[in-house]
Amino acid sequence: MFDLTGKTALVTGATGGIGEAIARALHARGATVTLSGTREERLAALASDLGERAHVAAANLSSREDVDGLVPAAEAAMGGLDILVNNAGITRDNIFMRMKDEEWDQVLEVNLTAAFRLTRAAIKGMMKRRYGRIIGITSIVGVTGNPGQVNYAAAKAGLIGMSKSLAREVASRNITVNTIAPGFIETAMTDALNEKQRTSILETIPAGRLGSGDEIAAAAVYLASTEGAYVTGQTIHVNGGMAMI
Amino acid sequence: MSDIAERVKKIVIEHLGVDAEKVTDNASFIDDLGADSLDNVELVMAFEEEFGVEIPDDAAETIQTVGDAVSFLEKNSA
Ligand SMILES: NC(=O)c1ccc[n+]([C@@H]2O[C@H](COP(=O)([O-])OP(=O)(O)OC[C@H]3O[C@@H](n4cnc5c(N)ncnc54)[C@H](OP(=O)(O)O)[C@@H]3O)[C@@H](O)[C@H]2O)c1
Q1: A39 CB under 6 A from ligand 1?
Q2: Is the pLDDT of residue A63 over 70?
Q3: Domain extents for chain A?
Q4: Domain limits of chain B?
Q5: pLDDT tens, A121-166?
Q6: Among the four A45, A65, A193, A205, which has the fewest Cβ within 10 Å?
Q7: Is A152 a catalytic residue?
Q8: Which whole-number Å values give the CA distances from A35 to A27, A47, A121, A241, in the listed order?
C-alpha cells in the first residue's frame, strides 16, 4: 500500500519543517522528488542526503517570474509531474486594525496566488497523463480563524475553496485535489511562540502535545497514493483533536 | 477533405467517443458532440500536440466547432 515508485512530486517549502518531512516521506515511498524553496544550500543538502531521485529547483514564490519557471523546471528534471504539494507558507501577523496592505499582499501572494499559479501550470500535464494529486497545506486557522492572522486565515481558507472547486472540475480525469490542515506542529514557525503562548496552546489540544512534521507527511503520502484516488475536495485535519470539524 | 481536417476529425472521434458521421464541419463540440468545457480544453491540447502548434487561450475560446478547429489549424500549422 501507498507505494509511490515511478511517481514524480514537487514539494514547495521543502526547506521548512513540514515540507522537508513531506519530501522525505514521498521519497521514502519511492517517488522522485523536486525540492523547492529559497535557501539553496539547504535544498542542496537535503537533496544530497536523499541521494537518488532528488532534484532541486529554487524559486522565490513572491516572484511571479520564479513561479512561472518552477513547474516547467520540475517537469524537465523528472520527466513529468504527478504530485504537487503546495506547502510553502509565511505569516505576517498583526491585529486587524493595524494590518498593512503589504502584510496582506505578501501573505496572499505566497500562500494563495503562488499555489493557484503552480497548480494551473501543473494541471495540464496531469490531464494529459490522466493522473494527478494536488495537495495544499492549509491550516486549522483557515477554518476556525485566529486573532492577529486575518491575512493568513484568509489565504488558508482561500486554498480550501480553490481546492474544492478545482476538485470538482478535474475529478473525472483521475486528478484529486485536497488539503491538509495542520494544527500546531513543531517547526520553525511554532518555535517562534513564547512559553506562555505554548502553555496556553497546549491546554487546547486534547492530545496534550504539538504534532510532528512526520504526522503531516503521513497524510500527504495517503493523499498522493493511488489508494487515495476516491478522496477529493477534502481537508484532512491533523491537529491532535484541537478542533473537530 | 484536407489532410488537416482528416486528422482533426480523428482526434475528435477518439477523444469524445462519437460516431464519425456526426463529426461534420458544423458540429459544435459542446452542443452536438456531448463535450463539456474540460473536453474542449483537452481537444485543444490534443490539437497542439498533433500539429506542433501553440494555441493561445483567446484563440482556443473561438474554437467551438470542428470547422473552427480545421480553419485555425490550416492557417496556423506549418
Ligand atoms: N508549523 C505549524 O504549526 C503549521 C500549522 C498550520 C499550517 N502550517 C503550514 O505548513 C506549511 C509549512 O510550514 P512550516 O511549519 O514547515 O514552516 P517553516 O518551517 O517556516 O517553512 C516555511 C517554508 O516555506 C518556504 N517559503 C516561505 N516563503 C517563501 C517564498 N517567498 N518563496 C519560496 N518559499 C518560501 C520556506 O522556504 P525558504 O526558507 O527556503 O525560503 C520554507 O521552506 C505552511 O504553509 C504553513 O502555513 C504550519
Answers
A1: yes
A2: yes
A3: 8-237
A4: 1-76
A5: 999 999 999 999 999 999 999 999 999 999 999 999 999 999 999 9
A6: A65
A7: yes
A8: 11, 7, 17, 30
Tell me the pLDDT tens digit for each residue of A79-111: 999 999 999 999 999 999 999 999 999 999 999
pTM more than 0.90: yes
- Strands across the sheet containing A175-182: A54-56, A32-35, A8-11, A83-86, A132-137, A175-182, A235-238
Helix A17-28 / helix A40-50 crossing angle, nearest 10 deg = 30
Domain spanning A8-237: CATH 3.40.50.720: yes
Report residue A188 as a C-alpha cell: 520553525
Cell of residue A40, nine digits: 539553496
Q: Which three cell numbers stand for residue A74?
A: 520540475
Nearest residue to B69 via CA among B32, B35, B28, B33: B28
Residues A104 and A122: their CA atoms lie apart, in Å, by 26
Chain-centre distance for alpha carbon A149: 18
A128–B38: do the CB atoms touch at under 8 Å?
Answer: no
Give the containing element (helix H, strand E) for A21: helix A17-28
Minimal Cβ distance to A169: which of B38, B42, B45: B38
Cβ-proximal residues to A98 (8 Å cutoff; 6+ apart), any chain:
none
DSSP state of A113: I
CATH T-level fold of B1-76: 1.10.1200
